[in-house]
User: What shape does this take?
Amino acid sequence: MNTNEEQNFKNEMEAVFKLLSNHIRLNILIMLENKQFSVNEIVEALGIPQSQISHQLAILKKHQLVSSQKIGKKNFYKLDDPHILNVIESTANHVKHVLQGKSHSEV
Amino acid sequence: MNTNEEQNFKNEMEAVFKLLSNHIRLNILIMLENKQFSVNEIVEALGIPQSQISHQLAILKKHQLVSSQKIGKKNFYKLDDPHILNVIESTANHVKHVLQGKSHSEV
DNA sequence: CCTTTATATGTCAATGATAACATATGTTAT
DNA sequence: ATAACATATGTTATCATTGACATATAAAGG
Assistant: This one.
């Protein structure tokens, strides 16, 4: 009976999608694609209050999408598992498809 | 200046992730992977009240993830763009990775 | 045209997420 | 020890989503 394990799996799927469904978190992940950044660099790049960025980073970290490394006063964040970029990329492809072939619900 | 278009794009990305971050909608999409089903078949498979399924199907349809075809009294739903399965699959891969290498936040 | 079956839509209370703000912690320099 | 900087954490009001329930529409059969 692996139903429980499967449920676990689905819960985590859901959690990942939930994480990605927020523009701040999504932008952070995209920003971290190639390079690590300090909190303040992220704050300045996104133009969003520091505490909010820290909150979102904490959530991303809790779900192991990013990891951090403290150097001096600064805390640098990077992607923990670049695999997540595949998810973002295939969604981007899907969205491209949908936005191009905007056949139906163009209300 | 394609900033506006880009914003559009990111909004739709967000919307797709939001759609996927709900277990009912996710299960519906997975169920529709290979075959179309009527509303009632989905209701019975998932054991969730009909009105709720209809609500979620309407949301999925609005974002063009599914389409429907009425045959007699029944309304059959199928994936509108199977591309979305790639998104689900790459997320599944990511989650597998995370669940296996549960190194860090195992609190 | 009345009933049954199948599905959609409307409403709203309960729950969850976000944004905004205040404050705390930790590090470095003076 | 104090100040300045960088970041994290706590709290709460606001807003969005979900779940539950009632009702509406639409097709088919009698």
In short: Helices of chain A lie at 3-20, 23-31, 39-46, 50-62, 84-100.
